[in-house]
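Sharing in case it's useful to others searching the archive later.

Someone asked me privately for the predicted structure of Kojibiose phosphorylase, so I'm posting the question and my answer publicly. Question first, with the sequence:
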Amino acid sequence: MALISADRERFPNNPWQLVETRHEQGNEGTLETLFALGNGHLGIRGAHWAAADSDLPGSFINGLHEIWDIKHAENAFGFARTGQRILYIPDANNFSVVLDGESLSLAESEVLDYRRSVDFSTGVYECRVTWQCRSGAVVTTTERRAVGFASRGSLGISLEVSTDREVSVDVTSSLVNRQDQPVEDHSVHDPRRAGRHAGRVLLPLRLDGGDGSLRLAWEAAESKQRVGVAVDHWTSAGHQPFETLVDQDYSSVRYVLAVSPGEPFRLEKSVSYAAGRAIQEPSVDPAAVAEEGLRPVGDIFAESKAHYRDYWAASDIVVTSQSVLQQAIRWNLFQLAQATARADVAGIPAKGVTGSGYEGHYFWDQEVYLLPYLTYTNPDGARKVLEFRHGMLPEAQVRAKELSVDGALFPWRTINGLEASAYYAAGTAQFHIAAAIAFATNRYVWATKDAGFRDGMGAELLIETARMWISLGFFGKDGLFHIHGVTGPDEYTAVVNDNLYTNVMARFNLRAAAALEHAGISDEERQLWEAAANRMQLPFDERMQVHSQDNDFMHLEPWDWNTPRSKYPLLLHFHPLVIYRHQVLKQADTVLAMFLQWQDFTAEEKHRAFDFYDPLTTGDSTLSACVQGIMAAEVGYSREALEHFTNAVFIDLDDTHGNTIDGVHIASTGGVWSSLVCGFAGLRDQGPVPYFDPRLPAEWDGLAFHLKIQGRLLLVELETGSITLTVPEGEPLAVDVRGQQLTVGAEPVKVALEPVPQPEPTVFPSGHPTASIPVVRANS
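And my answer, the predicted structure tokens:
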């Protein structure tokens, strides 16, 4: 069911804001995600300030988590042993406002006017409500929020109360430990959602407060990670607090006063969090460290505005003549900034810092779907994510020994470097995460020419993952190199032999490692890697004349496509074994391999693979639509490319997968970036030079964006029939446009483009379905 695009009166189209003009009950949790703020380190959900008006409020710090022992019903050697879950940090976004004895809430009070927004250009959240109070007064409350960037642990909140007559105002500002409140364990019904801890998690270390200030600190019971928070309040006209209460679960500062017309009451709440390695020593007071980070609320708002001014100057993507898509595109780009900007040396959770979905874990998503965006818009940020992966190398080497392979085996899902996936068939068996890390490493080095990283951490990542592949696979009697017992990106086929995606990416990994000039690689090892890569088994079905997803995929029973739409996603309605024995995909798998390793397949192979697999793909994964759209564009299916892209760009805005309540699908937002840059602009990398083969939709008048490549800022401008490239400053850049070699400098280089013919759809010699299941979404 569509949300944003279904009601443009309630959610008007604005190219630089997400706006809600009317409050309705029923989607509070989803909208808390859509209106969330974050900087990659600290995140705050977009909940209303009144408890009665929120559904799943909370705040998070990237990487701050609790652990527990995983209890397997039937244990076995090498199963994941340590569960990890992101914590709800004590949440500062809480107020109660009582006017003349009436407690204001959207659920109970009369609302005359309502408007809330999040401004992509400034990073500021604002909610203004005009209330008709039972006392007769007309009162307007305005709340504004922003997170810091130079001070990444900072949060600024202001609340203003204005009135048309003198009223009695009772305002309480509170800090709530939501982590230890009793809440339903949603993961019982949906494995994509976050679970809850049975016992108390946050144990108080310090509880101090007075005169409107709070200094508090906690320690997680098992992980022993600490978090400190400092809160200061400021009011207009210097109002003193009526009382300040301090408790481990609920601390508050209360103001009681009279407010007159023309003299609004303004309350500013400056919040600073401290977490991470710097406060783990017992002698360090986390609350004192947090106090050092306190900033005036006005400074925090200024930091946010300055950050986004610079961000959009280099990272905006402009689509001409498509205003509805432009708003959705900018919302997705805004989410990418919020998930990554100040993560520093840390991973990127699957939900960023907008919710607790997927337990706050890091997956392969960050390397395949997010690091392309980071590499070409914020290369320093990309390096820090790779440094974070490199920091997990010791644990990955231990894990490799547990699974009887050499080198390093990185966890499928994790926060602290240990495997946290309790279902190995769709977790640990996804060895392809190793190649994802190698691929992201190689892309970063290619795009930045960062020799220091290449020769140090980068080389170690490539070498240790290559050693894992060569020991995992084997040379068969046919003389080919096989990799058995793995799961590819498509989790609807698990523990298979010679998954094409895995083998193709492992081949890349082995070749990239073999190409290194590194003292740690012997001649024998290099020759072995090259032989395995050159003899890699790539399943191909002679009858269909198409690459098979794995050795057995073509022999599976076809899925019954008359299955009611209500039974999707399949993982919530069918036992895994039912799904595994059918020819049905959760997400693009072979098609993804052909996108990432674009030089290894012919145009005909890509065309036939897309025609065969697109109809079999349910799209139950949010990672699917973007990849299918990219390859549809390359093949020449303009209409299908635009349809897949539109589905991708509205995945969260329209909650098409029904779980946006748990946070933004950050990997999908990265896929939206790739859809524009790699799909419609046709960028392919890691070749001799950057390569463009544009596929601008006929409905679009233009597409423009910047890429940071090898120390230059490349401006790319597409319009019907041409592409224009410019490097405004620095040395010229060599670029290839459809086989034409160019040198691009300060003077724009314009290249004419012939239309891309649409191919005839492939007719396969069997009765496979011929159309994908469309995502149901109302017209905008």
